[in-house]
Design a protein that fits this description.
Blueprint (H helix, E strand, L loop, with lengths): L1 E6 L19 H11 L4 E7 L20 E4 L2 E4 L23 E7 L22 H7 L4 E7 L1 H15 L4 E10 L3 H13 L3 E3 L1 H6 L2
Parallel strand pairs: 1-2, 1-6, 2-5, 6-7, 7-8
Antiparallel strand pairs: 3-4
Bound molecules: pyrazine-2-carboxylic acid (VGL) and zinc ion (ZN).
Zinc ion binds next to loops.
């Protein structure tokens, strides 16, 4: 079974959102083309879904500002602007994303004391989300990963998919993803490639099965 994982294609990470990724919204038509022409047997999506007092928010750390390093649960943590708060429009999928064919939504980041970049488990690896069990049960043999942001949640999700789904071919769809920081994106792609994740384009994904 061939599966597409859409990571955090939410208003919060697009133009006008609280944690807008540069040109994040530009991937929406590319993701839609993958969904309609990629011949996927299954399309799943992750959704960053934080409580209003999430510990990754700089607002919860007096004296700190967004994009400064802080700590959370005793570990170094990038502090973010408040974003993707449960039930707000910032947490909604981008309105132009074709969600009709999304068969499973994995919410993440609900526990205030730990962040969850990966769609598969918390950053401290203390809890699984359920997505790995779901995909293993579906016997996914090819998993294409794309979305926002390449250097955070897309990278973490692709690396976890590679580690947690042995025997599944994991591919990162580069043009269907955007990152927060250019140097971070370059490093993320190198890290994914070194882990055995294939770096492909949406044209590759649509032309192959
Ligand atoms: C993300 C930072 C904080 C992401 C989520 O989706 O990449 N980045 N929360
Ligand atoms: Zn978040």
């Amino acid at each position: 079974m061939k599966c597409l994982l859409l990571v955090d294609i939410q208003n919060g990470f697009c133009s006008g959102g609280n944690l807008a990724v540069p040109n994040g919204q530009d991937i929406v038509p590319i993701a839609n083309r993958l969904i309609s022409e990629g011949e996927y047997d299954l399309v799943v999506a992750s959704q960053d879904w934080h409580p209003a007092d999430h510990g990754s928010f700089a607002s919860q750390h007096p004296g700190s500002r967004p994009f400064e390093m802080g700590t959370l649960g005793g570990e170094p943590q990038m502090l973010w602007p408040d974003h993707c708060v449960q039930g707000t429009s910032d947490a909604d999928f981008h309105p132009d994303l074709d969600t009709a064919r999304v068969g499973y939504v994995q919410r993440k980041g609900q526990r205030r004391d730990v962040d969850s970049y990966s769609a598969f488990r918390d950053n401290d690896h203390s809890a699984l989300t359920g997505l790995s069990d779901y995909l293993a049960e579906k016997r996914v043999d090819v998993l294409d990963v794309c979305g926002l942001a390449t250097d955070y949640c897309v990278k973490a999700s692709a690396l976890d998919a590679k580690a947690m789904l042995p025997g599944t071919d994991i591919r990162f769809v580069a043009d269907a993803s955007r990152g927060i920081d250019a140097a971070g994106v370059e490093a993320a792609i190198a890290e994914m490639a070194a882990a055995g994740i294939r770096i492909i384009t949406s044209a590759d994904a649509i032309g192959s099965r």
